[in-house]
Amino acid sequence: MTELEKCRDHIDHIDKELIDLLARRFRYAERIGRIKREQGISVLQSARWDNILSSRREYAIKAGLSEMFTRDFLQLVHSESIRIQEGINGGND
Prior knowledge:
The protein is mostly helical. The protein has a single domain (about 5-90), classed as Chorismate mutase (Chorismate Mutase Domain, subunit A), CATH 1.20.59. It is about 80% helix and about 0% strand. It has 3 helices and no strands. The protein starts with a helix and ends in a 5-residue tail after the last helix. About 5% of the residues are buried.
């Protein structure tokens, strides 16, 4: 196996791990959606989102990721979490 093939093989494994982690994260988003529905809490929690965006951005930048990529990635993940929770809550929030 060439060095290039080894690197690609590592990336393939990491991609699978990322997908597994995202699936796990979204299962928690489902649980949170159910809790919010039971407690009558709005799906969108602006203060929580601001905190996530700030703290994760700082962590990602320290890890060597660009601020733009981090913001876009977090927004995409957040949008999917909101979609999942709104589905649980009937889309009323």
